[in-house]
Amino acid sequence: MKKSVTIICVAAAGAVAITGIVAGTRTNIASAFGQDKSGVLPGDRPHKPWPRHTPRPTPTASVPSTPAPTPTAPTTKPTVTPTVTPTTTPTSTPTQPPPTTPAPPGSFPAGPSQAPACKGTTIGTDQNAAEVIDKAPAGTTFCFSAGLHRISRTLQPKASMTLASDQGAVLTGSIPLTSWTADNGDWVTRGVLPTAYGMSGQCEDNVANICYLREQLFLNGKHLTRVKTRDKVAAGTFYADYAGNAVYLGDNPSGQSVEMSKTATAIQSGGTNVAVVGLTVEHFASVPQAGAVVLGNGWRVFANDIRWNHAIGAMLVNADGAVLDKNLIRSNGQLGVGQYSTTNGRIVGNQVSGNNTDGFWIADWESGGIKTTWSTNGAVTGNLIKENRGVGLWSDAYDDNRVFSDNKIVDNAADGIRYEIGRNGVISDNVITGNGLGTGRGSGRSLWDGGGINVNTSTNVTVRNNTLAGNVNGISIQSRTRGNGPWGLNVLRDVIVTGNTVTMRGGTTSTGMVQNSGAAIPIGEVILKGNQYVLDSLTADRFQKFGQWFSAAEWQAAGLDTGSKFTTG
Questions:
Q1: Which whole number is the average pLDDT over 326-333?
Q2: Coil vs helix vs strand at 163
Q3: More exposed terminus of the chain, fewer Cβ within 10 Å: N or C?
Q4: Using CA atoms, how far apart are residues 102 and 108, in angstroms rounded to an integer?
Q5: Which three-class secondary structure state does DSSP give residue 556?
Q6: DSSP string for 322-364
Q7: H helical segments located in 74-187
Q8: Which of 406, 402, 443, 446 has the alpha carbon at shortest distance from 421?
Q9: Using CA atoms, how far apart are residues 474 and 460, in angstroms rounded to an integer?
Q10: DSSP-derived secondary structure for 453-488
């Protein structure tokens, strides 16, 4: 009799992250592990859509336009140039980036170096950019001059406006903190924090629970670590006492630049067909699940560097036909890119790396690279998604007819690709390596925890021509009890896995199917065929089906992966 294992069903709590946020509270979240007794896993019911949250910019006092260092040490801020007197006449044709084209294989040119020349109304570092934009007619092109532009109020472009720079303009949502006093070995400044606010989101450290706090500190451009209590303050850290309106710093600030993120959102408006080109956008105190740059209908956000913002770098919200392409989107506190309720949105040719710097839950709360929900058509293609502390690329909750193709997805802490409670998806021609090995609480190494590709309770999904190697698992097909949604009962049906090359060596890595008792997969609903597996040994158990382990020969004898090849190497 074939050997078997006992599978403890893990609740896929990821979609839960999009509930309960508006009220500043959390609904039930699935426990990390738990037996399925009721037929519905805790926290595994269908979930509400991403809240249509419009962050309110935090009013700030006027601050000097003094450049400060960028968060990346090798890079220096451009020298501030004299302000050119703006003209009030809009250009007849807005400066637009070139048409988007897929990056060559293995090449991911992105960021302000890709921006075209800007010709239009100049905005200098000593001007209030929000006021200048407010006063101009629709269709105006604005060219931000070199240097640091402090944004104390969200920029709200009108229809067909272009906000651009070809000179290295930096938009920052931070303010300088200059009034410090020594205090029992630390340094303190007072009167700079907002009133205390409620928690939203789930943190990796669910004891301290401080990831949601938005006002982040930067010392000489370096992101400092927040600690929960005053007694934990040390070099490289800070503590924000909201009740006492005091910030404590572990480093002597004398002669150094200390900045605190304050303004919530850099750019957002109801204007259609807006272009944002060639800007660096950093240090915005964005609310969890909200973006520093929020795209609308027909927007093109091209060749920017969006970094070190508290929550999401760039967010597509009700942004039909929007394109996010050739941007550097890195080191944001929660997630690189988010998308919600968007038709035909495209995320193309970006470098999305190092996101979730502020400690959101790695395994199951929307942290990491790119996450899309409740969206129809469109694609995520040709991106480099690397070293994010969470899922690399995640479709969660009612995405329909989405294509994830030609991405390189490398060394993300959780799954490489997770396709969860969706339908009509295509996952093709991606290179997926080294993912799923860095999850923390509530996650293990079984197929319930995913792997290179994880298809979870979705319908009509094709996984083809992908190359996977060195992931915690190969391809995981999961069927869970997820309740009802807009399409009826959420089930796993009609999944085809073909033409993939999957390398699995060592440990417990495997490919296969898992199901819980309330979500049995009918025969014939999952087809694996025509794949190539590279294994450490042909006799090693590298395949699973509903708790049983199989070697390559046993797997095929069970009627799975017909026409597939199994080699060692």
A1: 98
A2: strand
A3: N
A4: 9
A5: helix
A6: -EEES-EEE--SSEEEEEES-BS-EEES-EEES---S-B-TTT
A7: 129-135
A8: 402
A9: 20
A10: EEEES-EEEEEES-EEESSSSSEEEEE----EETTE
- Give, as one character, the DSSP assignment of residue 538: T
| DSSP three-state, residue 557 | helix
Instruction: Mark out the alpha helices in 64-151 (DSSP H runs).
Output: 129-135
Residue 28's pLDDT is what? 27
Quick check: helix, strand or coil at residue 112? helix
Q: Is residue 206 over pLDDT 90?
A: yes
**Cβ distance 462 to 428 under 8 Å?**
yes
Tokens representing 158 are 């009108």
**What is the C-alpha separation between 492 and 546, in angstroms, rounded?**
14
Q: Which residue has the tokens 């073909």?
A: 498
Residue with tokens 């890079």: 75
Sheet-wide strand order for 217-219: 174-176, 258-261, 217-219, 222-223
CA distance 381 to 105: 11
What is the rounded distance in angstroms from the CA atom of residue 120 to the CA atom of residue 215?
34
Compute φ and ψ for 125, nearest 5 degrees. -70, -20
Contact (Cβ atoms closer than 8 angstroms) between residue 289 and residue 267: no
| Average pLDDT of the segment spanning 432-437 | 97
Using CA atoms, how far apart are residues 420 and 423, in angstroms rounded to an integer?
9
pLDDT confidence band for 144 (50 / 70 / 90): very high
Structure tokens at 388: 């994010």
Rounded CA separation 263/293 (Å): 12
232 phi, psi to nearest 5 deg: -90, 0
Cα(72)–Cα(78) distance, integer angstroms: 13
Inter-CA distances, 216 with 207, 210, 240, 378, Å: 20, 11, 9, 34
